[in-house]
Amino acid sequence: MPSSGTTTKPKSENKSSSENPSCIRRFKTLDLAMKRNHYRQDALIEVLHQAQETFGYLEEEVLVYIARGLKLPLSRVYGVATFYHLFSLKPQGEHTCVVCLGTTCYVKGANALLEAIEQEIGIHSGETTADRKVSLMTARCIGACGIAPATVIDGHVHGKQTPESLMATMQDCLGNRE
Ligand code: FES
Predict the structure, then answer these.
(1) Within a domain: 8
(2) 107-115, long-range: CB within 8 Å, 24+ apart, which pairs?
(3) Domain count across the chain
(4) How much is the pLDDT for 60?
(5) 71 & 117 share domain
(6) What range defines the domain where residue 106 resides?
(7) What does the pLDDT read at residue 38?
(8) Which cofactor is recorded for it (predicted)?
(9) Known binder of ligand: residue 105?
C-alpha cells in the first residue's frame, strides 16, 4: 500500500504548504480518495478530480503524490492532468466556472454561455480575474450530455443552462461566499 492510513508526507521544497495543518488535512483527503479506489491506476481521473476539488489546482507536489500513491509514472499523471481542460496546474480564482464545449453542449448553445460569461466577468477561457475571484475554463465533455448545455461551478454540475441561468448561478455563488 503506497500511502496507507497514515499520511506519507509529500516531499516538497515548499515547506509552507506541506507542513501547514490544512494542507496535511487535504493530503489525508487525497489518501482517502486513493484508498476508496483501492489504489487502482484506472481511478486516476477520479483521484485527480478529488485532488483538484481539495487543493483548488494540481500543483506539482500533488501530482507527484498521486503518481506515488497509484504507482504510475509521473509522466502519465502529468499527461492526463494536462489533457483535460477541467484540470488546472495553476492556482485558480476563489471560484471556478467551467463551460462544457463538447459536441452535445456546443449544439445546444454552449458557445452563447461562454460568450455571456466572458462578457460579464471580462476574461477569456483559461484566465482568472485580476481580483482572483473567478477562473473561467472550458472542457471537452464533462459526462453530463443528457442535461446539455452543462457547466461546472465550484465543482457542482449545472445542466440545461441558459446565459441567464448561468449568470444567476454565478451571482448566487459570488454572493453566498462573501
Ligand atoms: S458534451 Fe457537454 S457534457 Fe458532454
Answers:
(1) no
(2) 107/148, 108/148, 108/149, 109/149, 109/162, 110/148, 110/149, 112/163, 113/149, 113/151, 113/161, 113/162, 113/163, 113/166, 114/138, 115/163
(3) 2
(4) 87
(5) no
(6) 95-177
(7) 96
(8) [2Fe-2S] cluster
(9) yes
